[in-house]
Each structure stands twice: as structure tokens, then as C-alpha cells.
Amino acid sequence: MGVLNVTPDSLWMGSGALGADTALLRMEQMARDGAAICDVGAESTRPGSDPVPPDEQLRRLGGVLEVMRAGAAPLPVSIDTSSASVAEAMLSAGAVLVNDVTAGRADPSMLPAAARHDAAVCLVHMRGTPRTMQDDPRYEDVVAEVCEHLAERADAARAAGVRPERILLDPGIGFAKTLAHNLALLAATDRIAALGYPVLIGVSRKSMFGLLLGRDVDERLPGSLAAGLAALARGAAVLRVHDVRESADAVRVWAAIQEAGAP
Ligand code: HH2
Asked: Catalytic residue at 163?
């Protein structure tokens, strides 16, 4: 999953609103680089960020919507939002997945909207809001608590009419987590996968690599690749990444080794 942030303030590679021509070029490059899906976001969820009103998200998404409505999107589109009206506009234009860091808790219309469009949903674990989530997060047993929350959100999605085969789960690396929590969850990817849904992992250039390695955001690609492969080796199904070409190369090498070792 390649990230296309149409935000002026993202952690990495945000760009603000894109015209349709630029949006199309970026999506085409992402498809050539090896992404299977393009996750478009118009609201930064980095720690400390404030919500962006739906109208402003839709304004930023205008170019992408134009590409989609023209039937020109070169790869399937996912919408990264917690607002059902934003999701609804993107789903009506052909988006196939709603990626909601609140797992349908912020907007009660979100899961029913996904169900109506027979879309996939990515349900992410987070506590609090992006503004507050990194204020001293504490867990008794982070893996057990995240698994319990994700199972509950999957049940909520099914109750809203989302088909089980359309559900993905994500432990929310960096969302109300310390470095130790993030590492424990990545190590336990297999336990999350055992809940019975594909697992999506987003580690790309996150602050855990600043803490672990002392690297700035522009120096975090090697750490991101290592963490992504460690998650894949433990059963993750999808990696959400900014650096599509480099990540696709890493995954292809890893997969070739896996295949060579298969009985
Ligand atoms: N992380 C970010 C945003 N959306 N979605 C899922 N499912 N999982 C994640 O880990 C995840 C996500 C934050 O990363 P980024 O898009 O780079 O930053 P920003 O929110 O500042 O745009």
C-alpha cells in the first residue's frame, strides 16, 4: 500500500492539495513502483495533529476525485479518513477501502457507509485522538489489549454489515504507543493475524526509528524496511509505505527467499 498524502503537514512527503494532472502522475509512478493499492489521506494523524474538517479534506482530495471520476486511476484507491462524508465521496468515486485510524469510532456513519458500498475497511487500534494519543500511553499487556480492541471493532464492523472478508486489522504502530509497545506489537504480528483477518502494518518513517536509531525522518528508510520485513515474516499481509519502490524490492527479495525455502 503506497501512501499519497494530500496534506500540507504530514510526517513525510505530504504535498497539500494536488491538481488532477499531478495526482495522476503520482498514482502512475506508485503503480509502476509496485504498489497494489494507493492510500490517499487528506488529514495528518501524526501525534499532536488536529482534525481537518470534512469540507477541507474534500477540497484537498479534489484532484484525486477528478482522476477517479474519469475512471483514470491506475490502481485501486483507499481513503485514509475518520469522516464518513469524506469516505462516502471517495467510495462513490470508486475507492475500494476505508482506512480509518479510529476504526469507525469517530463517526458512527463510517462502518454503515463502508457496508453500503461493499468496501473493505482497515480497523486501526488507537487510544484518544492524534492530539492526545502520545500523552503517556500505558497498558497492562499491550498485545492482549490491542487484540481485544481489534476483535471488538471487527465485530462492530460485521454488525454494521461489512463482510468478514472485507476486514483488515492494524495494531496502529505509533498510535498511543511507546517504543516498547510498538516493538512488542510488531513481534506479536502473528497473534494479531490469529484473530482471523489480514493484518496491515504502517511503520514507514515513524518516530520509533528516531527513538531506536536517533535518525531524522529523512534517514528512516532502512529501519522502516527492516521493521516491515519483520512484520511480514510474522504474518502481516499489507505494508503501508511511503517508499514504494524500495519497499517493493525488499518484499520481492524476501518473498523469493520464502518461496525457495518452501517444501
Ligand atoms: N499511519 C499513519 C496514517 N495512517 N493508517 C493505517 N492503517 N496504519 C498506520 O500505521 C497509519 C495510517 C501516519 O503516517 P503518515 O500518513 O505518514 O503521516 P500523517 O498522518 O502525518 O499524514
From this structure: no
Q: pTM (2 decimals)?
A: 0.97
Which of 206, 215, 220, 234 is flagged as catalytic? 206
Sign (positive/negative) of CA torsion 190, 195, 201, 207? negative
Using a pLDDT cut of 90, give the percent of the chain over it. Answer: 89
Of the pLDDT bands very low, low, confident and very high (cuts 50, 70, 90), residue 15 is confident
- Ligand 1 centroid to Cα of residue 244, in Å, is 15
pLDDT tens digits, 217-227:
999 999 999 99
In testing the pocket of ligand 1, which one of 177, 240, 242, 247 has its CB within 8 Å of the most ligand atoms?
240
> Could you give the C-alpha distances from 212 to 72, 138, 173, in angstroms and in order?
41, 19, 14
Exposure b/e, 231-257, CB count within 10 A at least 16 = b? bbebebebbbbbbbebbbebbeeeeee
Ligand 1 centroid from CA 164, angstroms: 23
- Looking at residue 52, its pLDDT comes to 95
Average pLDDT, stretch 171-200?
98
Strands (E), the chain: 2-5, 38-41, 77-80, 97-100, 120-124, 167-170, 200-201, 238-239
